[in-house]
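The step that takes the researchers longest sounds almost clerical: writing a folded protein down as plain text. The outcome of that step, for a single protein, is printed below.
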Amino acid sequence: MRIFVMMIFSCFMVMTLSSQAHVKWLSWEDALQRNQKEKRKILVDVYTNWCGWCKKMDKTTFSDEKIAEYVNANYYPVKFNAEQREDIIFNNKIYKYVGSFGRKGYHELAFEIMRGKLSYPTAVFIDENLSVIQPISGFQDALKFEMIMIFFAENYYKTVPWNKFVIAFQKGNLINSNDPKSVQPKVQTVKN
């Protein structure tokens, strides 16, 4: 009986641990190499070690099973410390750490992909050709981040204004990202 209880407990623990989703973060080098073989957008989580909201986003948003599965399937996710001191080669350019007197420094690549606004956390969406689509700064809960990642991954950002996308998403009206009419709210006729 004791062995049977231990076996059940072991199976339960294995199932619980395996069902906990997590984003499979890549290094810049790995993401860029994979992108050469199979084109995919890159999601960069720009953070610092001292940022409390960054840690909260890791524990909540990026630990959400739905978020983790979608990110892993649709992006090459990169976790990027904006204060790291190692050089990075991106788009055939070398980016370096920039020190500062009396303050912490920053990495030139973080400054560039965040378009000069160093705010943490920031999720930066980069297209398949390594051009920045848009940085989104600040903590995002799982629901809002789900909308944001779908908006960019499925190319809605190319044809649909964000506010119309949000309305369609909330009503469950997302059909085809290539057809902007598919995310328009349904029109009701009024009889006179």
The first helix runs from residue 2 to 19.
